[in-house]
């Protein structure tokens, strides 16, 4: 007798379909059950406004969560950086799989790196497209500190559209997430990987969230087999920082928690955070290091501790959006 297929809710974009397909394959292997993708259109997919204007928080998530609660799908896959920091009581974050490359990357004309672009600009500003206030803030700050002439240009659209701006010459380059390009097999188009020392990623960037209803304990337990504990505590600390800053998903906040090791032994976690004005004129960038969190609460505490230090340095005044 054929088992009933599990219904996986996903956004319709090429990237969402690719990453949901990868999760579907993993769930099939794990459970032995067929998995079918159910495509759902979200507000973030249909709005033509920039994410910073429509708030960012939850715009790619709400429709998927509504489908879960209606019983239209059994579980859903999100890009973790799109999730609001407050978790609804009736839904459970069943798994956070191993994180992809968290870095931001440049796709530039003529295969150039950021430094090479600036050198080739012949006195004019290098025009770099991004829809992210976080990327704008750090890119402009980097340009200021290195004497580079950079103009950040707000853009929207899918990966093809964004890369097209650079390939057509309309822009000199665009900034994208390495994880997305990896998942759709286009990482070879990257012309420069931006180190996290130059640009901290969005909280949770590169990680996926697999969510189901709290009432479906059996499915939640099965999906939990895909969870990576190190990724989970890292993104929990990052998202705790974001929440404690009272900042939404589209605020100019970067955060990254990485594990510090002696040989094969992981012994500490370092959490870095940044908040800045989009013109790059002012940044608050701090870090904190402590034992690897052994629980959700310890990871949350690490993020809150760094947030307190950043707020004491004036971080609140640099965020264009505060979450309500």
TrEMBL record:
Its cofactor is dipyrromethane. SUPFAM superfamilies: Periplasmic binding protein-like II (SSF53850), Porphobilinogen deaminase (hydroxymethylbilane synthase), C-terminal domain (SSF54782). Gene3D superfamilies: Periplasmic binding protein-like II, Porphobilinogen deaminase, C-terminal domain. Keywords: Porphyrin biosynthesis, Transferase. InterPro entries: HemC, Porphobilin_deaminase_cofac_BS, Porphobilin_deaminase_N, Porphobilinogen_deaminase_C, Porphobilinogen_deaminase_C_sf. Binds 1 dipyrromethane group covalently. It comes from the Bacteria. Residues 234-311 form the Porphobilinogen deaminase C-terminal domain. It holds the Pfam family Porphobil_deam. Its EC number is 2.5.1.61. The keyword Transferase applies. Residues 6-219 form the Porphobilinogen deaminase N-terminal domain. It catalyses: 4 porphobilinogen + H2O = hydroxymethylbilane + 4 NH4(+). The modification S-(dipyrrolylmethanemethyl)cysteine is found at residue 249. Belongs to the HMBS family. Monomer. Tetrapolymerization of the monopyrrole PBG into the hydroxymethylbilane pre-uroporphyrinogen in several discrete steps. The porphobilinogen subunits are added to the dipyrromethane group. This is Porphobilinogen deaminase. The gene is hemC_2.
